[in-house]
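Protein Record: Sequence and Backbone Structure Tokens
======================================================
Tokens: labelled as protein backbone structure tokens, with as many entries as the chain has residues.
Question of interest: how does this chain fold, as expressed in backbone structure tokens?

___
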Amino acid sequence: MSGKLVVAVILALQVTASVCELPQPSPELVDKYTDLKDSVYKLLAYAGIRAKEALEPLAQHLPQSQAAKEYVEELQGKPHVQSVVKVATGAAGELAPLVDKVRMAGLGLYETYARPYVGTYLDQGVTAIKDFVKNVLPAEEH
């Protein structure tokens, strides 16, 4: 009976060790992903600025906008809200390395198993979307 238990434990450890060895992405794929992520973040920030510029004059004339502004200022002054913001910021900082590990594992799995089949189509789609965005929002604006 104990021999079977030892064999079961050894097999379980081998399976666990083999599951933890995920493929690593190539530096070329990581650079491509990082560039795409940065350009998306810049585009979202620019779109947010443009939306704020467009909506701010409209919101100044609404009576609800002043009440909402006062409510937000009141919330920012409460210690409970400030502590929640601090905890959330700290948790995000603590989770950043874990998120990077998961991201790299996902990129490695994508490159190993999915990229040979869908990589060209995905690249063509991303290129088409980039061209469309460049026509809608010229590069010097964002």
Notes: The helical segments are 2-20, 27-60, 63-77, 79-136. The longest helix spans residues 79-136. DSSP finds four helices and no strands in the chain.
